[in-house]
Write a structure and sequence with these properties.
This protein is of the alpha/beta class. The protein is about 45% helix and about 15% strand. The longest helix is centred in the first third of the chain and has 15 residues.
C-alpha cells in the first residue's frame, strides 16, 4: 500500500524493556516518598501498578497512584525526572526485539513511513536518539514524537503524522490496552489500523529488571535519592498478565490484529502481517 505510515511504541514494542519500566517507576516513587508515608505501600504493589498502567508516562502513573495513596508522593516532577534518568541508564542493557531493526529498514525501503510515538518528554527522547541504542534505528524513522507543550501521545500524534505525510492508512503497533483505547476515538478520522503487540513478561524477567535497576542505582551519587532504602522484592507477590489474557485484553481494547510470540518470534509474525497487508513483499 503506497503512502502507509506506521506508528510504533518504543518501550515494549521496539525495545524489549517493558519488564524494566514498572520496576524503575516503583523504585523512583518509593525513594521520593517520605518513610512516614510508606506505611500502606509495598514495592511489589508499586511494580504491579506500573504494569497495569502501561502506556502512561511516569508522571501520569505517579499522579494516578497518588490518588490511591493519599498523595504519599509530594514532588511528582522530581520523582519523574529521577525515573527518566534511572530508566534511561538501565535500559542501555536492554535490546531490540529480534528482527525489529531489520523490519524497520525493509519498511523504509518499501516507502513506508515509520514514527515512534511516546509519552516520554521530547528532550529525553532526543538524547536517546543520539545514544548508541537510539542510533541503530533513528535513520530508519521519519521522526520520534514525544511529549511537548500542548502536544501529546494520542490524538496530537495521529494528527501530526496524518498532516505531515498524508498516508492512506496509519498502522499503530502498541502493547498496552490504554494505547489501543486512544485509537477508538480517532480510528475513522485518521484511518487507523491498530495492532496489538502481545508479548508477555514473566516473573523471572521482572526480577532481572530489579537486579538491573539496583545495579544502576549503585552508580548514582548518594545525594540523588532523598529517602534511600535497601529494597527487596518478593517474586511471589508480583502479578503479570498471562499470554492468552493479554491477547484477549488487546482485542477487547479494539485491536484489529494481534501479533504474538516470544522475543524471537513476535517480529517475524509482525513482518508476515505486513506482507499479508501488502506493505512488504514476501
Amino acid at each position: 500500500m503506497p503512502g502507509a505510515a506506521i506508528m510504533w511504541i518504543r518501550d515494549g514494542v521496539l525495545v524489549n524493556r517493558m519488564h524494566l519500566n514498572p520496576v524503575a517507576f516503583a523504585f523512583a516513587y518509593w525513594f521520593f516518598t517520605p518513610p512516614e508515608k510508606r506505611s500502606r505501600l509495598t514495592i511489589e504493589r508499586l511494580i504491579n501498578f506500573g504494569f497495569t498502567k502501561s502506556g502512561f508516562s511516569c508522571a501520569d502513573k505517579m499522579f494516578l497512584f497518588n490518588q490511591e495513596s493519599d498523595d504519599a508522593l509530594t514532588d511528582v516532577d522530581a520523582a519523574a525526572s529521577f525515573y527518566n534518568e534511572l530508566a534511561t541508564v538501565a535500559a542501555e542493557s536492554c535490546s531490540y526485539f529480534d528482527g525489529a531493526i531489520e523490519l524497520l529498514g525493509d519498511l523504509q525501503k518499501a516507502g513506508v513511513y515509520s514514527y515512534i510515538t511516546s509519552a516520554v518528554e521530547q528532550e529525553v527522547l532526543d538524547r536517546w536518539a543520539q545514544s548508541p541504542q537510539g542510533k541503530l534505528i533513528s535513520p530508519k524513522l521519519m521522526e520520534i514524537l514525544g511529549r511537548r507543550p500542548n502536544f501529546f501521545k494520542g490524538t496530537d500524534h495521529f494528527e501530526y503524522v496524518s498532516d505531515t505525510v498524508k498516508p492512506d492508512c496509519i498502522y499503530y503497533v502498541a502493547d498496552a490496552v490504554s494505547e489501543l483505547l486512544t485509537v477508538l476515538a480517532n480510528k475513522e478520522r485518521f484511518k487507523i489500523v491498530s495492532i496489538g503487540f502481545s508479548y508477555c513478561i514473566d516473573k523471572p524477567q521482572v526480577m532481572e529488571a530489579v537486579r538491573l535497576v539496583k545495579q544502576t542505582l549503585s552508580n548514582f551519587p548518594s545525594g540523588a535519592i532523598p529517602y534511600p532504602e535497601d529494597l527487596e522484592v518478593d517474586e511471589a507477590k508480583l502479578q503479570v498478565p498471562e499470554e492468552l489474557q493479554l491477547a484477549d485484553s488487546l482485542r477487547g481494547a479494539g485491536a484489529d490484529h494481534v501479533a504474538g510470540g516470544d522475543a524471537n518470534e513476535i517480529f517475524a509474525n509482525l513482518r508476515q502481517y505486513f506482507v499479508d497487508s501488502g506493505l512488504l513483499k514476501q
